[in-house]
């Protein structure tokens, strides 16, 4: 992920100007990294270390989403819809 792309994601999901670590931003960044790793693994099927990294990122995103759903269900639903994660 390039710096410009990361800045764009942070600006889109940040709740304030200097917000870079909120749950919303972290989930959005993890989603983008997961998409990149998924594309990589389609080409390099036997890359076991990348597969492990992908599983770790998916688990981390899952825990952030669980936290958000327990705290604020409306924001959770909005984020899920915006990122296109679940149907």
The name of the CATH topology is Helix Hairpins
Beta-strand residue percentage: under 5%
Category by helix and strand content: mainly alpha
Indicate the multimeric state.
Answer: single chain
Topology order in helix (H) and strand (E) letters: HHHH
- What is the overall number of helices? 4
Instruction: Report mean pLDDT, rounded to a whole number.
Output: 91
CATH second-level architecture: Orthogonal Bundle
Query: What count of structural domains?
Result: 1
CATH domain class: Mainly Alpha
First-last Cα distance: 26 Å
- Per the principal axes of the C-alpha atoms, what is the gross shape? globular
Unreliable spans are: none
Number of strands: 0
Reported for the largest beta sheet, the result is: none
What value does the Rg take, in angstroms?
14 Å
CATH superfamily: S15/NS1, RNA-binding
Can you walk through the features of this model?
The protein has 87 residues and is an all-alpha fold. The protein has a single domain, classed as S15/NS1, RNA-binding (Helix Hairpins), CATH 1.10.287.10. The protein has helices at 3-13, 23-43, 48-71, 73-83. Helix 1 packs across helix 2, helix 2 runs antiparallel to helix 3 (48-71) and helix 3 (48-71) runs antiparallel to helix 4. The radius of gyration is 14 Å and the shape is globular.
């Amino acid at each position: 992920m390039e710096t410009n792309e990361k800045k764009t994601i942070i600006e889109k999901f940040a709740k304030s100007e200097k917000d870079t670590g909120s749950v919303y931003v972290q989930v959005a960044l993890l989603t983008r990294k997961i998409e990149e790793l998924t594309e990589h693994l389609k080409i390099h099927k036997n890359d076991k270390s990348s597969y492990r990294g992908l599983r770790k990122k998916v688990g981390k995103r899952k825990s952030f989403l669980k936290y958000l759903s327990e705290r604020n269900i409306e924001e959770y639903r909005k984020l899920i819809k915006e990122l296109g994660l679940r149907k």
